[in-house]
Amino acid sequence: MSSNRSSFTGKIGFVLAAAGSAVGLGNIWRFPYLAAKYGGGMFLLVYIALSVTFGFALMVAEIAIGRKTGKSAIEAFTALDKRFTFVGVLAAIVPAIILPYYSVIGGWVTKYLVGFVSGDASNMAGDAYFGNYIGSVGEPLLWFALFIGATAVIVLFGVEKGIEKVSKVLMPVLIALTLFIALYTIFSMDGAWDGVRYYLLPDFSNFSLMTVVAAMGQLFYSMSLAMGIMITFGSYMKKDISIEKSAKQIEIFDTGVAFLAGLMIIPAVFAFSGGNEEALGKGPSLMFVTLPKVFEAMPGGTIIGAVFFFMVLLAALTSSISLMETVVSVFMDKFKLGRRTSCLVVLGISVLLGVPSSLGYSAWSDFTILGMQVLDFFDFISNSIMMPVVALITAIFVSFVIKPKAIIDEVELSGKFKWKKLFSVVIRYVAPVCILAILVSSVLDVFGIVKI
Ligand code: PHE
User: Fold this and answer.
1) What are the residue ranges in the chain where pLDDT is below 50?
2) Is 119 helix (H, G, I), strand (E, B) or coil?
3) How far is Cα 16 from Cα 105, in angstroms, rounded to an integer?
4) How far does residue 222's CA lie from ligand 1's centre (Å)?
């Protein structure tokens, strides 16, 4: 991976490639259900505050580390300081944990697309449909296999560039469609405005430490931070392109898509079920339960729904490809395996971890880890534990080992670093202290030591 490193051609090439990896199920499926569950406007406010501080500082640091060393995560840390190789290793494990369960959700999306295309749309709008579906054993496994299989084939044959090109054209369509569905719901359904209010007006009584924990994990996940991916992207970036501007553009783009997805789903939840705690707290199923109802109520909804799920599927695929590509390249570099073997090994691991994630909703629903279903557990371990740990050590690494100046110098190769002060303060003080506090409290919470 480190040899023959090609550069992104233009300014926009880098941002688009990074955004293609960043925008995925995290924005469309994960963000809305977390926002619904953890306080609506309060969650949105905390998320935005974290993204302009933590998110910005970490994104800049990761891209700069990648560009400075010209290497992907593990080698980049080794090149800067051997003692910190383990951070790169830790970061590289994260996408390997995410990919399997990401593909389970990708399978759900595929199922919904096929359902809409084959005329099953009105059935899917029924209350019990989704629960029955994930409660069955065979079908979810089949769609999961198809999704991870397709990802593997694309990575194996190295045709991801083609897919990414398609997705760039389709991204604006996805955004326009999301906006359209949001506006349709808001202006035509009774009760939807209550949802808009819940989503846009922060209510401080909805604040809890869990809001911050969830928002921070989501930030890492959605922006592909703390898993070495932005380091790899940075290694491909030319020296005359502004890291600062690129980081800001990726953040605005990624947050914009997530924001719209929330606006599409939360008002609909209020319209269909009054926005009571049970409806808002649905978790991973929220999108799948709510959207078919919206499409059912919409003239031409079956076609719009089919197009929508197709777009989501593509966005999910570009992300899963980038997740798999990362893990495959680690295997190639570290274990000196060929591309094909690495691909098969990663596919094997993904099936091993993905099957229990899928069965966790059906045959193995009695089996829980720390009180969580398998999929939730993988999500928790990666987002709430490993990514904060990687982010924390990265911040410490930048502050005390290579020093913020190393990053600032790299950023200034292409001009003035406008938010230099903010960067230094956040990476030195705010990030380490806050991440540590959040990490400790979320661990204590899971083990039931304190309730947050
Ligand atoms: N950021 C992607 C999303 O929001 C997930 C992802 C993480 C993709 C890391 C690639 C790499 O869905």
Assistant:
1) 1-4, 9-10
2) coil
3) 24
4) 6
